Amino acid sequence: MSEPEDISELWEDALDKYEKMVPERSRRDRNLFITLKTPEALEEHLDKSEKSFKLFRSKHGKLTSRLKACMKPFMALSDMISAAVSASPFAPAATVLGAVCFVLKAADGVSEVYAWIEELFDKLRDFTTRLDEYVQRGLPKGFRDKIIEIFGCLLEILACAELAVKDGRWKKYAAVLFLGGDERVKTAFDKLAGLFQSEQSLVIAITYATNQKMDKRIEEIGAMSEAILDATNKAHEEEARRKYMSWISNIDFSAQQSDNLRRKQANTGEWFLENPIFASWVNGSAPSGGLFCQGAPGAGKTTMSATVIDYLSRLSSTGVSGVAYIYCNYRSRTEQTLYNLLSSLLRHLVQICRTVPRCVVDAYDQSNRGDRRLTVQECTDLIASVCKELSVVYIVVDAVDECDENVSRNLFKNIRSIQKQANLRLMMTSRFIPAIQEMIEEELGVLPQLEVQASDEDIRQYFASRQPGFKNFLKNDKKLCALACDKVVEAAAGMYVIFSLHTL
Q: For residue 70, which of 34, 97, 101 has the smallest C-alpha distance?
């Protein structure tokens, strides 16, 4: 697709998608998409119509400078492709500036939101640096449709940002965390990254052809062609992988796992990993392939789950085994449906496979290429099929007691059916609740149990890590410090320290 009429159609599709995402615009608002030709024009418009923006800009001059740096390559590229979209009244550059304008208007005088938008421009600047290569080398005919896709993706990001500001979702995160944590914004940025990655090898080829003389040896040309082909294939594989995972589920517990590991005290939990009961479960000699770990509130069950997941992931780095996990939370019960939990497990298994399994590709094609979501049974069957391709799969479900009991029961029924077809080992954590244990025994049988509690050594390591912050009279008295540590271990009684030590 590279003819002007095809490119114009692409642009119209991008505009249509943007307009469906954002609130309906008035006729006056829609005129902004025609009248805003440059970042300076946008700045002038906002100065006149938004006093709060002018006040913020006078105190924080970075906002418009970042906007101008971010938009510079888009302005040049818009001129290059303007003829191809001449049928549309909304030229690419003016449309993007209009979309930026509505993001800024949505801030409505809140300084924190303007600061968030600065971070958004910084994030986009990381991508627009790549666009400078297109600008410097001109725009080959075959690139025009890709540039339109990039413009459309940028509009999508700006629409997500506008909705996030209006919904007040920016309050939930710090600016940087929001850009990586909010699912809609993250998905849009992942798509933009994929577009740049898919074209990277072609830019390399153009650079190579421009800078090299015709008398280069055939061997060098062949080597470069092979490298370009390899880079292109990898880019296409990653783009396809993102497409399949997005279709399967938008729930991903990876960020929570990273956060749990970040907060974990180094070198704690080793006693659990060295326990014979745990080792028996890992190597497959545990009955029913299951392990049930109970612990009192505050005993560190979630931290231990993160420790186990990290340990198993390092064991699975060879690619012959896999690890998937679920973090249950009573505050998210409405989202923790059976379908959502199973589809998130499937997504994670696909993510760790070296290539997207054939069964997933076939299921995607049979769903009219993603138009229809999977059913619970289809999710279960696909998990079983993916598990069969791996020598062993470990699944960790943390805080079973915080999930709806019917959902948990049906989840374990489905996992039990998968265990009959593949080498799947399941570990669960929970508080001491008889009803949960009875439910697990009914669905999975009597499982080996390992209690989660903070060992004395773990607590001593935690105490030692906080010592530098103690007051001098304690920090400098070794005997007193040792006595304080003993008292903390005694008071903890198998639970992780839940009070602050910085006052000592």
A: 97
Domain count, the chain: 3
What pLDDT digit, counting tens, does each position of 63-78 carry?
Answer: 777 777 777 777 766 7
pLDDT digits (tens, 9 = 90+) for 17-68: 888 888 777 777 777 777 777 878 877 887 777 777 777 666 666 777 777 7
| Closest-CA residue to 21 (of 193, 158, 192) | 158
CB neighbourhood size of 217 (10 A)? 8
Contact 107, 165 (CB under 8 A): yes
The neighbouring-strand residues paired with 394 are 323, 425
Instruction: Catalogue the long-range contacts made by 35-39 (C-beta closer than 8 Å, 24 or more residues apart).
Output: 35/94, 36/94, 36/97, 36/98, 36/101, 37/93, 37/94, 37/97, 38/75, 38/97, 39/64, 39/67, 39/68, 39/71, 39/75, 39/97
Whether residue 498 lies inside any domain: the answer is no
DSSP 425-446: EEEEEE-S-HHHHHHHHHHH-S
Residues 6+ apart with CB under 8 A from 226: none
Least confident among 130-144, 238-252, 309-323, 437-451: 130-144
Residue pair 267/455 in contact (Cβ under 8 Å)? The answer is no
Angle at 243 between CA 237 and CA 245, to 5 degrees: 100
Number of helices followed by number of strands (H, E) in the chain = 23, 4
Q: Which two tokens stand for residue 475?
A: 């920090």
Structure tokens at 411: 């989840």
Average pLDDT over residues 463-488: 64
Residue 373 backbone class (left: φ over 0; alpha: ψ -120 to 50; beta: rest): beta
Instruction: Decide if pLDDT at 502 tops 60.
Output: no
User: Within a domain: residue 237?
Assistant: yes
CB 247 within 8 A of CB 364: yes
Find the mean pLDDT for residues 456-460.
65
Residues 424, 480 share a domain: no
Q: Are strands 392-398 and 321-327 parallel, antiparallel or unpaired?
A: parallel
In a domain, 40, yes or no: yes
Tell me: do 160 and 263 sit in the same domain.
no
Instruction: For residue 224, give the 3-state DSSP assignment.
Output: helix
Contact 22, 159 (CB under 8 A): yes
Range of the domain at 14: 4-248
Where do we find the tokens 């292109």? 232
Please indicate, yes or no, whether the overall pTM of this predicted structure exceeds 0.70.
no
